From TrEMBL, chain A:
This is Uncharacterized protein. It comes from Celeribacter neptunius.
UniProtKB/TrEMBL annotation, chain B:
One of its GO terms (molecular function) is hexosyltransferase activity. It comes from the Bacteria. It comes from Celeribacter neptunius. Residues 4-133 form the Glycosyltransferase 2-like domain. InterPro entries: Glyco_trans_2-like (IPR001173), Nucleotide-diphossugar_trans (IPR029044). Keywords: Transferase. This is Glycosyltransferase involved in cell wall bisynthesis.
TrEMBL record, chain C:
Keywords: Transferase. It comes from Celeribacter neptunius. One of its GO terms (molecular function) is glycosyltransferase activity. This is Glycosyltransferase involved in cell wall bisynthesis. Residues 18-210 form the Glycosyltransferase subfamily 4-like N-terminal domain. Residues 222-374 form the Glycosyl transferase family domain. InterPro entries: Glyco_trans_1, Glyco_trans_4-like_N.
């Protein structure tokens, strides 16, 4: 089985508004994002991290079974572990999980690592560093050369979304604290929704939100929310 | 990986309809369709072959030189399959595009819950479309005593084309009883549940397939005889529900036969079945009579 | 797809832990795994599951209607009938009626069930179901196989066994005529059968489940002689206790442990006290960890008078335990080869003394124990499940059909 492992900046990959279909656009044609509706109603590509806690129940057994079944026509399932690019603990667990998957399936496992980043690509070497690599090779896995996808190689429309996600994720704390200062409590997921709407609006107007001076946009957004709450709009 | 088993007899157009619905599935895994032609006349067989060769799916056609009936054809299909998973479809009925995807996710959930897949069939809700009538959703209820529900046939119906499961699960018990020209799937379902198998509902309340229903041209007495064979074959498991239940199940079988007779324009035969039902379970017969008067 | 439909018939199975019940379930499981479709038919009051685990996919059908499904008057009549069945009141003119009252229901329901299910072969286990199937009326023509699990004279001649009604005894014998084949456990049982039935006899020994070879190899054996079996007269545990009285002084570091429960428990316990063997010979009762017992024992003493087969003997050999028993004990002398997998004791004269002598010879010779252990493991391969399964296929298909099935690759 060929398995794609997507790593990258969590800021670029994590927020909830980049659909699996959009991500699939930057992966090879025969790749698909492996979703797990059987695990929970909301589980999809953003929750592959949960597979790392595989000792808790039979999630990995079910995932391995589903991976083999879904990829039987030759397609390559993709699993996304945003933090595996920079977090040592996550990397270690990822390697353990891959070894376990290899032991659960009755066919050879080939890994295709992908790194999606908006900046330099040093992390991928860390994620599949010598020690980890050896462990995987010992377990009989084949590892293809890692592929680095940066802002230059990714289609502009998708990259725009990836950058938008990064902007949202960077500014969630700022937005939450600004709302709080104005007497409004907002949960992280709701904050994410509101910022993503803002992002969407910018995109529709052919604008891009810059990472600098974001506080001005945030301040305006907070004011709009306040007006909405007090019934002015 | 998945074999879709389709029996075909003398209706290439219906086969085409079913194959299109298989081709439109959103499920990504490897699919092979096995069609067993049950001795169709040569011109209709040629038409079916043309449809198969123009279809993008991986299809294997097995030709039975003579017409052996539905149960024997289904047994041929079951023997021909060597895939890990099996789903059934009858030529003329259709799946909606999410059927396999939803049912496979239900199977994965079973693995996650630690269930043994060799004892599980995944069924689903379906639309029931009378020829010339309106489409109505029918819900398959898998909670409660499945054997009891199968005998009654109201909450859980034995329709093979709703199912997905592993090949081991479909071989848990013996295949289709060739003595049963009709209702061989009911017999198969009952044996499966008696053998420790369990039906699971797909995790979607939507209908996932459509059954085009017609009673025309079907022999009502043949249907009633098949019920009788099933009742005596599984007698010990039926009798444990009590005399009243057995009488109710038999009266219901009479009403099914009566419906077939009525739809085939033999009202006297239909009346005969209703009389028999009255002898079996007068209270139920009166309830049905009241209900049909109310519905006009 | 499962092609061949088999119907196993046994009158009672619920919660029963006997040898025949175990063989039935192990055989049904093995045949199910081999691709047969199986239904087990019983005729019993309790609706409880079998003691031994049954594979999913094997159907069970209890033909006897549940009491609660019957009307009040019917239940009252049933209670009176039960009382009569349990009593020994058997006037000459009512023998046939009593037989019908006791067994008629099973016979007629079984006939109807066979016609309704139309199996390819019906296999009756133990005399009550052999009789019912042999006398049942059905128009379907399956192959009929009777599987007997005891010494035939015990099953067919002993008035104390099964139904003491002489009508039942005569029916039991007559029913055999209808069978296409009759399975017996040991070749020597052939002699009991009348000439016209001998051609239909087939020796189908019990299968022995293999034990992991590393477990047997690594087992640490104590200086223990064990005996396993019901504490009943036929098992002759008394002889072993008496023999130990001769051994206890010469072998103070050896102990004798007797596993099993039964009617003679108290009597044997008294005998142990009387002979001053407390601490040397122990009655251990029932155990659920018999495997551990076999793996830690050095010798199995099997002083039984006769055996229908002797499942204990094959189990001991499979666990690497040599067996000592009497040369005239059926079952023992079929399974064990003298000097290869165990030692034979002379049945003439003082049997206890003879047993003690042979045991002493083996207890003081660890090398011999080791040789017999290796020999036993080789011998027991005769009863490997796949070999016994092949015999069952022969029983089911008959010699001609079996060969044809093999040729077509059904096997």
């Amino acid at each position: 089985m060929d398995l794609i492992i997507v790593m990258g900046e969590s800021r670029a990959l994590l927020p909830h508004h980049c659909e699996p279909g959009e991500l699939e656009q930057i992966l090879p044609k025969n790749a698909f994002v492996f979703t797990m509706p059987w695990y929970s109603r909301t589980a999809g590509r953003y929750y592959h991290n949960r597979l790392l806690d595989f000792e808790e129940d039979l999630r990995l057994q079910a995932a391995a079974f589903a991976l083999v079944t879904e990829s039987s026509s030759g397609l390559r399932p993709a699993l996304i572990f945003p933090d595996a690019g920079h977090d040592d603990a996550v990397q270690r667990r990822l390697m353990e999980m891959l070894v376990k998957i290899a032991s659960l399936i009755d066919q050879p496992l080939t890994l295709h690592p992908y790194m999606i980043s908006t900046s330099a690509h040093t992390d991928i070497d860390r994620a599949f560093g010598n020690e980890n690599l050896e462990r995987l090779l010992q377990a009989g896995l084949t590892i293809e050369a890692p592929i680095f996808l940066s802002s230059e190689t990714i289609a502009p429309a998708v990259m725009e979304k990836v950058l938008g996600n990064k902007w949202i994720n960077d500014n969630i704390p700022l937005f939450m604290s600004a709302m709080f200062e104005n007497g409004l409590l907002v949960e992280r997921s709701r904050a994410c929704d509101l910022l993503s709407k803002c992002c969407e609006m910018a995109r529709k107007n052919d604008l891009q939100l810059a990472s600098k001076n974001a506080e001005n946009v945030i301040a305006m957004l907070v004011r709009k929310q306040l007006e909405h709450v007090v019934g002015l709009r | 990986m998945l074999d879709v088993l389709i029996p075909h007899f003398n209706d290439a157009e219906a086969l085409d309809l079913s194959l299109r619905s298989v081709a439109a599935q959103t499920w990504r895994g490897k699919v092979r369709v096995i069609v067993v032609d049950d001795g169709s006349p040569s011109d209709e067989l040629r038409r079916a072959e043309a449809i198969i060769s123009s279809c993008d799916l991986d299809i294997e056609l097995i030709k039975q030189p003579e017409n052996r009936g539905r149960p024997a054809t289904r047994n041929t299909l079951l023997s021909a399959s060597d895939a890990r998973f099996i789903a059934w479809l009858d030529a003329g009925d259709t799946w909606y595009e999410k059927k396999l995807e939803t049912q496979f996710n239900t199977l994965y959930k079973q693995v996650y819950d630690g269930q043994d897949l060799s004892r599980i069939w995944v069924t689903c809700n379906y639309d029931w479309q009378w020829v010339g009538g309106r489409r109505r959703k029918v819900t398959q209820t898998t909670s409660g005593d499945q054997l009891k529900h199968l005998y009654v046939g109201d909450r859980l119906r034995a329709y093979l084309w709703t199912l997905l499961g592993t090949r081991e699960a479909f071989n848990l018990v013996s295949g289709f009883d060739e003595r049963l020209p009709r209702l061989q799937d009911l017999d198969y379902f009952i044996s499966f549940v008696r053998g420790g198998g369990r039906l699971i509902s797909a995790e979607s309340s939507d209908a996932l397939c459509c059954y085009f229903k017609s009673d025309v041209g079907r022999n009502a007495q043949e249907i009633r005889d098949c019920y009788e064979t099933i009742f005596s074959k599984h007698g010990p498991s039926l009798n444990r529900f009590g005399v009243k239940f057995v009488r109710r199940a038999k009266a219901k079988a009479d009403f099914v036969a009566a419906r077939f007779a009525k739809n085939n324009r033999t009202p006297l035969v239909s009346l005969g079945f209703r009389m028999h039902a009255f002898g079996m379970d007068p209270r139920y017969t009166l309830y049905r009579a009241k209900k049909s008067l109310r519905n006009g | 797809m499962r092609q061949t439909k088999l119907c196993f018939v046994i009158d009672r199975l619920a919660l029963r832990s006997g040898g025949a019940e175990r063989v039935l379930i192990e055989t049904a499981n093995a045949l199910h795994d081999a691709g047969y479709s199986i239904e087990i038919v019983t005729h019993e009051q309790r609706g409880k599951p079998p003691f031994y685990p049954l594979r999913p996919g094997i159907l069970r059908a209890n033909l006897r209607p549940a009491n609660e499904q019957r009307g009040r008057i019917r239940r009252m009549i049933d209670r009176l009938r039960m009382k009569w069945h349990r009593s020994e009141w058997l006037p000459y003119g009512l023998r046939r009626l009593k037989w019908l009252s006791m067994h008629g229901g099973f016979k007629s329901r079984l006939g109807r069930h066979i016609d309704a299910t139309q199996p390819d072969a019906v296999i009756a286990f133990l005399p009550p179901s052999v009789t019912a199937l042999g006398l049942a009326r059905f128009t379907h023509r399956p192959r009929l196989f009777a599987s007997l699990h005891n010494v035939p004279s015990q099953d067919f001649d002993n008035p104390q066994r099964w139904d003491p009604n002489p009508v039942d005894r005569s029916f039991r014998r007559a029913a055999l005529d209808r069978y296409d084949a009759i399975g017996i456990l040991l070749p020597e049982f052939q002699d009991w059968f009348p000439e016209h039935l001998r051609a239909r006899l087939l020796v189908v020994p019990n299968a022995v489940q293999p034990v992991r070879s590393d477990l047997v190899r690594q087992a640490i054996r104590d200086n223990t002689v064990i005996s396993v079996g019901r504490l009943a007269e036929v098992k002759q545990h008394r002889l072993l206790i008496e023999a130990w009285a001769y051994l206890k002084d010469d072998f103070p570091d050896w102990t004798c442990k007797i596993y099993g429960i039964g009617p003679m428990q108290e009597e044997l316990s008294e005998l142990i006290c009387k002979l001053g063997l407390t601490g040397h010979v122990s009655l251990m009762g029932d155990t659920r960890e018999i495997e551990k017992v076999y793996l830690s024992a050095s010798i199995l003493a099997h002083p039984a008078k006769f055996e229908g087969f002797g499942l204990v003997i094959t189990e001991a050999l499979a666990h690497g335990v040599p067996v000592v028993g009497f040369e005239d004990c059926s079952g023992f002398n079929f399974i064990v080869k003298d000097g290869t997998s165990g030692l034979f004791v002379n049945g003439e004269g003082d049997r206890a003394r003879n047993l003690s002598k042979v045991l002493a010879r083996l207890m003081c010779d660890p090398r011999r124990q080791e040789n017999l252990r290796a020999g036993g493991l080789r011998e027991v391969e005769r009863f490997a499940p796949e070999r016994i399964l092949a015999l069952w296929k022969l029983a089911i298909h008959g010699p001609t059909e079996h060969a044809a099935a093999k040729f077509q690759g059904e096997d």
